[in-house]
Amino acid sequence: MELPIYLVGYMGAGKTTAGKLLADKLGWHFVDLDEAFKEIHGLSTADYIRTYGIEDFRRKEKYVLEDIADQAPFEKVIYATGGGYPCYEDNMECLRELGTSIYIRWKPEHLAKRLSLTDLNERPVLQGRTEEELLAFIAPQLEAREPFYKKANHVLDVDICDELSDERIAQELYEFLKSYMTKW
User: Fold this and answer.
1) CATH class of the domain comprising 5-181
2) What is the pTM of this model?
């Protein structure tokens, strides 16, 4: 397994929160690409998308990751990518070249449940949707994204979890990575 680790998956999959918990557990650095984007461009991803549109955001997002990865290519870092990042241009192939990518895979109904418990104002495409409307939106979009996500080096199917907590996702990721740590 190559360093660094890139977590990919749909919105609400736990890439950021579980990723931070995992990095703490491992004693590694953690970088949220949405936060890095905000530091570089001065706007949150939601505000940038509202102002300049999704296409411009995707182009800029690609370079944020590449710039950060160039600064610390072999460090013990866990990156949380944006949900759509792997689906733009050759981004998934780039992640595979830069390190190891792990797809945190959920069923659409569990993602809808998780997302309904968050502040949807921070996610422009989900704003104002009920849990049922979230599921109707997520299911086809996740199906379209799945071929990109599945290009990750590894797929961690977290629907086996008996609970939807980020602590549990972090533990599943930790157990998954533990088998590779002796090689580092």
Assistant:
1) alpha beta
2) 0.90
Coil vs helix vs strand at 154: strand
Domain boundaries, the chain: 5-181
Q: What are phi and psi of 183, to 5 degrees?
A: -85, -10
Measured CA to CA, the distance from residue 91 to residue 87 in angstroms comes to 7
Count CA within 13 A, CB hemisphere, residue 73: 6
| Cα–Cα distance, 84 to 115 (Å, whole number) | 16
**Ranges of H-type helices in the chain:** 17-26, 33-41, 45-52, 54-71, 91-98, 108-116, 131-149, 166-181
Per the CB < 8 A criterion, the answer to whether 113 and 171 are in contact is no
pLDDT tens by residue, 116-164: 888 877 787 888 888 899 999 999 999 999 999 999 999 998 865 555 6
